[in-house]
Amino acid sequence: MKLMIIGASKGLGRAFVEGLCRPGDTVIGVSRTQPAALDCGDGVELRWIEADLGQPAHAAAHIAAHAPADLDVLIHNLGIWEDNAFSDAYDFLKEDDSALAHLVEVNITATLLLLRQLLPRVLGTPRPQLLLTGSTSALPRSGRPEVAFGASKFALNGIADALREGFRPQRLAVTTLQLGYLNTEDALSVPRPQAAARGDGHYVPVHDVVAMVRALLDLSPSSFVRELLLTAIADPRC
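^ thats the sequence. predicted structure below, dont judge the formating
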């Protein structure tokens, strides 16, 4: 398997890099800088492309120029949010215009430009797969007030729906990961029971996301999961 992960330097993206591949696989990480001390396991080839998705057109062209000619799986794990998001200090009316525009550039524009460049490399493989990291903020009546972040994740749902229809003849499997609050402090190197205990049921450990995605990658070419909703057991919104 040849797997590319956009937004791979830390948190969930890093967990995907370190946890999804088996011996003989190749994983290509994409982020502004390559993190140190990555552990992908024996027999896994690691490559990296450094690109700043804050400059969507330049980044998309650079990534396309350095990406392999074929990819089995593309995981788009890109997303930023407002400075005071997910806190009591958030106030949409006090948001800076340039910050809002930048969020849209990264979360929506960069996504569109990257997918247009990279999808042809996935479509020619025996089981082309695209996974998009969404959020429970994109679900109807999500209970979250973050306007720009929520709007960008709603847009991701629209992108996924359109891609499924547009590339159904090529059997492109498009899965949206609708994820709740994550524990990104504890990497895969932390034992899962310890990571799961953080937050007393209010955070999903990245271990669980990796386990679910690994199951998706192991499906036959005859099926796919359209949407995966994975949330913390104590999250009252879900």
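The mean pLDDT is 95.
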